[in-house]
Amino acid sequence: MFEVRNLHKRYLGIPALDHVSFIARPGEVTGYLGANGSGKSTTMKLATGLIEPTSGEILFAGRPIHDDLMAYRQRIGYVPEEPHLYIHLSGLEYLVMVGQLRNMDRKTADTRIDGLLHLFGLHGDRDAAMSSYSKGMRQKILLSAALMHNPDLILLDEPFSGLDVGSSLMFRSLINELAKRGKIVLFSSHELETVERVCSHIVILHRGKVVADDSIERLRVLMALPTLEEIFSQLAVEIDSEAVSREIADLIHA
Amino acid sequence: MHNRSMLNQWVLWKLQFRALYRVFFLRLVDLDLLSADADLTRLIGQFAVIFCTFSFVISIPLLLMNGATLVMENAWMFEHFLIETAMTVAGLIVVLNWDAAFPDKLDVLVLAPLPVRKSMLFLAKVSALFAAPTLAVVALNSFSGLLWPLLFRADNSGFVGMLRALPAYWFTIFAAAGFLVLTVLTLQGLAANLLPRQMFLRLSAVLQAAIMCTLVSVYLLEPSLESPAALTSPQNQRLLAWLPSYWFLALFNQLNGSMHPALAPLAARAWAGLGLSILGTCTALLLCYFRLMPQIVEQPDILPRARFASWSPRFGSPLTEALTLFSLRTLLRSRQHRMILSFYLGIGLTIIIGYVNTTPAGLRSAKAAISTSFLFASILMMILTVAAFRVVASLPISLPANWIIRITQVRAARAYRNGVRFSWLALAVTPVLFVVLGLVPFIYPWHNAIEHSGLMLCLGILLVELCLFTFPKIPFTCSYLPGKAQIHFVFWAGMLIFLRLLTGAARFEERLLNRPLNCLVAILLIASAALGIRYLGRSRAAVTEEMLFEEKDPAQITQLKLS
Fold first, then answer.
1. DSSP summary character for residue A55
2. Across the interface, do B397 and A49 touch by the CB < 8 Å criterion?
3. Could you report the per-residue pLDDT of B63-82, keeping only the tens digit for each?
4. Percent of chain B's residues with pLDDT above 70
């Protein structure tokens, strides 16, 4: 079980996360939703140990992750929001490097890398520098790097960004498949339709605070709203989107 | 109505030109090298101040001359120095700006959808390309270019001569710098047009590094021929035909009215060279824009690397292998890192060639005797290679991509330090050691060869330990705070003092090699020093298990720890 308990994070005194708590369970895909700047990526960075909380704690398998960060890192896979890669390396070189950094057995790493490159359709371009890869291809490399060591906890921050339709559909099924096999998946996305199809449980964040934490079905019933989009609009969207679009159109016509 | 529309169009072109010019000009410095807080315009200003300071310093001797005039040989020496310095600086800037010479794919894709004419793009790019060397040359001559020419006037020419010397000097300086810039561009443009595109892209980096090393070496090794006897000597004619700085020395004297018959053929060569370089650059630029640009756009997005290039050597543990290969690939593939390394190694080679040339026996000593030149050369190359690696290792390749190293840290920081140590030894020490091992059996008797190789190995290890003590980080992953560049200046200032020490060290080693027991003691002493530094580094790092990535400013508040 992955548990976030009373997590608080301030940047230069400005609160990014305000006492956030939720639980993500094995076999379940937890959707993590929020508008830009609501604190989703901060939570993800805290969950990976890249940054430390101001207060509160994150527990994995009942233990605070900072008790043994290295053992925890062995068990997580992370796809960041932006595809930041060492683009002077080829896709193959990058994945081999990640395998070595994770202390994976060479034979196992080679087999999995080869398989992942084939399945993601990157095998033909494995020796090309990643500087020439499209955003979708880079995203697939990130996904491969996050999954190749068979992690127990998978943290996905906008994983569909840049993927083509076919890859998105395949990846959607993959998330469900991984959850079925007992993995804990924390899935942050802006694509509400995908979240609705993939996630069994959602956490909605607004201005650094949790405003909803339940299954989609229960939220629908509780709020008497038919879709996740409407639930999200009511809880986390402050702007009148129609009025703003009219103003933008007026501005460019003026 | 028609005039108004023309005026509007002109204003639009001016705005477009300004915007594009600024974008292309500021691309001189790769932003990835700088920390997020660095200000590019300030950095360019700092470079200009360095050049101005240099110009001021070399103008100080004029104050000591107290109005005296220069004899011809002395005048030629100073004229030649100023011309060759301006040429080298302009040449180095254009070499550093290598990839900005022609629009790349990103330029074409980003700018093509905008309503910008192709000719405007061309004009802005060319203007930005020439602006940097022009600014550097102006800054480099900001003081010296106003004072020195007054002393270079023709004999008995009085005030009119002074008035003539100034424009003659500035024309010559710009012509000389322009010649070198245009020649480099011609070479690059011709290579781009004559070679298949893929081959050019692969060879471009080698060509850039070769030109860089040539410029530095020629500047430092160019013989002093500033006398009528040397300039007319038949044995120097072949050499003079290949030294453009002397052509422009002649050109200056021709324009200044102080022409000597010995300089006449060289002045003709300067005019011809200038004309050819202008013609060559115009042809290369036009061909590149109208022939290559469509090819750049049409080339496939993904350029596969040859399969054999993906072969990688195996080094020790997976972590060691990962860190060593990462460092090796960064050095081989990153233009900035490669250029800085070439610059250091080019200067090292130049000092060695200069030293060997000024030493009577050079490297060719009888096997029975020990050549100090070879000892000097090998010690210097070991120190310079490790120092150059230290400098480039502190420049990050991509800070945002470091998250993968941080998130995959599943071992203690100690294991990373061992991996980093191995990569330093493999990439900085081993190549020099191989060269020494390859040459030393031909130069020394076998027992001296073994002793020297042992000393070199220990020296390499000691240097690596020293570097790791001050820089205990994964190479190419740390942020670069503004102000850290002073390491370069400190290094080169230290180098001047250091060369004298190094000559002494080479002589000391020569004595050691004649006494095997003393040599063994020296090896043990250096090895102990290396071990001591390693122990100190380990004790200092024992408190942390996390690797260090970010450079942080020192704390603003210092704790006094009184309680």
1. E
2. no
3. 666 656 667 777 788 888 89
4. 79
How far is B319 from chain A, CA to nearest CA, in Å? 5
Indicate whether B84 pLDDT > 60.
yes
Strand-strand pairing, A201-206 and A184-188: unpaired
Query: Do A127 and B310 lie within an 8 Å CB cutoff?
Result: yes
Low-confidence stretches of chain A (pLDDT beneath 70): none
3-state SS of chain A is: CEEEEEEEEEECCEEEEEEEEEEECCCCEEEEEECCCCCHHHHHHHHHCCCCCCEEEEEECCEEHHHCHHHHHHCEEEECCCCCCCCCCEHHHHHHHHHHHCCCCHHHHHHHHHHHHHHCCCHHHCCCEHHHCCHHHHHHHHHHHHHCCCCCEEEEECCCCCCCHHHHHHHHHHHHHHHHCCCEEEEECCCHHHHHHHCCEEEEEECCEEEEEEEHHHHHHHHCCCCHHHHHHHHHCCCCHHHHHHHHHHHHHC
Contacts of A124 in chain B (CB under 8 A): 304
Q: B397–A93: do the CB atoms touch at under 8 Å? A: no
Q: Which of A102, A130, A134 is best to mutate for the B interface (most B CBs within 10 A)?
A: A102
pLDDT above 80 for B103: no
pLDDT at B558 over 50: no
Domain boundary assignment for chain B: 7-298, 319-541
Quote the pLDDT of residue B35. 46
CB contact under 8 A, B302 and A128: yes
Q: Is A84 in Cβ contact with B410 (below 8 Å)?
A: no
Query: Could you tell me how far CA A207 lies from the centroid of its own chain?
Result: 18
List of chain A residues whose C-beta atoms are within 8 Å of the C-beta of residue B401: 84-87
CB contact under 8 A, A89 and B309: no
A49·B407 Cβ contact <8 A: yes
Among A109-123, A224-238, B181-195, B323-337, which stretch is predicted with the lowest mean pLDDT? Answer: A224-238
Give residue A212's Cα distance to chain centre. 18
In percent, the amount of chain B with pLDDT more than 90 equals: 12
> Tokens 């009511």 sit at which residue?
A234
A/B interface, count of CB pairs below 8 Å:
99
Of B304, B305, B325, the CB nearest to A97: B325
